[in-house]
């Protein structure tokens, strides 16, 4: 079975600072990996996905993530945080051929200080 | 702009009452997922449909919850009878089988008093 670990529940950065949200996965077969963002009182929105093509994946709103098989990681980064990035971020994994089911991490809340 | 829609957006009901939540998946999508989100448990998968057939409802309390897809444009999640512990935000998501990403609706915030 696959799983996702998002360490910590809250990250706080200053506006303009680097954003780094960590995600480690466990999967016995090559995974598909996703990052979703949830703004207050809204549903989850897909930020980016890794589906075994390029290991560096660019998403919306200036975010990107790098798949590192040796580290079983898929960390999310953004060079310069904006106030509008404050939200909850979820990492998710799907096993190829697994009926499209996603396993989500517990999420991490990003706060951006002015 | 194709989106998943959910109704109602908010529901307050008394314990013991029946609650029905509806979801319209994105046109052409053939997979539908129901999730429940709470502070304590996070995001939990309740049920999953492919081509309107239920594939996995192991996350759903069977005694009070039921999920159906009467047609390709409508998915329903019903709770009968409702209990205070059912208070949560319920999300519907849809996708295309084999493409893995899911598109979420805005959710139904349920409060059972």
DSSP strand (E) fraction of chain A? Answer: over 45%
Biggest pleated-sheet summary of chain A: 6 strands, mixed
Q: Which percent range describes the beta-strand content of chain B?
A: over 45%
Number of strand elements of chain B: 11
Number of helices of chain B: 0
Task: Count the E strands of chain A.
Answer: 12
Please mark out the parts of chain B with pLDDT under 50 across 5 or more consecutive residues, or reply none: none
Q: What oligomeric assembly is this protein in? A: heterodimer
Mean pLDDT of chain B: 94
What is the element string of chain B, with H for helices and E for strands? EEEEEEEEEEE
State the helicity of chain A in percent bands.
Answer: under 10%
Question: Termini distance of chain A?
Answer: 41 Å
Can you lay out the helices and strands and say which pair or pack?
The complex is a heterodimer of chains A (114) and B (113).
Chain A: E1 3-5, E2 10-14, E3 19-21, E4 24-26, E5 31-38, E6 44-50, E7 56-58, E8 64-68, E9 73-78, E10 87-95, E11 103-104, E12 108-113
Chain B: E1 5-7, E2 10-13, E3 19-24, E4 31-38, E5 42-50, E6 53-56, E7 65-71, E8 74-79, E9 88-95, E10 103-104, E11 108-112
Parallel strand pairs in B: 2-11
Antiparallel strand pairs in B: 1-3, 3-8, 4-5, 4-9, 5-6, 7-8, 9-10, 9-11
Short descriptors:
heterodimer, A: 114 residues, mainly beta, 6-stranded mixed β-sheet, 4-stranded antiparallel β-sheet, 0% helix, B: 113 residues, 7-stranded mixed β-sheet, 55% strand, globular
């Amino acid at each position: 079975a696959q799983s996702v670990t998002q360490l910590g529940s809250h990250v706080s950065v200053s506006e303009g600072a680097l954003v780094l949200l960590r995600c480690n996965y466990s999967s016995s077969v090559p995974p598909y990996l996703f990052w979703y963002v949830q703004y207050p009182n809204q549903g989850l929105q897909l930020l980016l996905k890794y589906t075994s093509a390029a290991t560096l994946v660019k998403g919306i709103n200036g975010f990107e993530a790098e798949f590192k098989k040796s580290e079983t990681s898929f960390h999310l980064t953004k060079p310069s945080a904006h106030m509008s990035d404050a939200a909850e971020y979820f990492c998710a994994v799907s096993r190829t051929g697994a009926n499209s089911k996603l396993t989500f991490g517990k999420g991490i809340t990003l706060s951006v200080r002015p | 702009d194709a989106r998943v829609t959910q109704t109602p957006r908010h529901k307050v009901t008394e314990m013991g009452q029946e609650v029905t939540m509806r979801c319209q998946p994105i046109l052409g999508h053939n997979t539908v997922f129901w999730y429940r989100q709470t502070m304590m448990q996070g995001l939990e998968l309740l049920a999953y449909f492919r081509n309107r057939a239920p594939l996995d409802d192991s996350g759903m309390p069977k005694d009070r919850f039921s999920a159906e897809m009467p047609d390709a444009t409508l998915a329903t999640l019903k709770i009968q009878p409702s209990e205070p512990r059912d208070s949560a935000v319920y999300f519907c998501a849809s996708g295309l089988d084999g493409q893995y990403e899911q598109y979420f609706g805005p959710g139904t915030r349920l409060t059972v008093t």
